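--- STAGE predict ---
source: upstream dedup step, 1 unique chain passed
mode: sequence only
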Amino acid sequence: MSHQFSQGDFVYLPSDTFIYQFGEDTCDWFVSQRKTDKPMYLMFLKENVSNSAYGDIFFEGSVWSVSLEDVYDYEGGAQ
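--- STAGE serialize ---
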């Protein structure tokens, strides 16, 4: 599945999606993890530089990462 999100796009995350704040320059471990309690639209920032399976999003004033398999385009269809 190909993900073609651009910086500034709004993307859809379903409820119960895990998001992470990873350690510096790695996706091997995280310093914080959250599970979304409701569906939401968030701003896509960029593909994660450490692991292209993740994308960086803006959530509650901070940069978080999410598996691109869990992210959908703004209309709600899989990208």
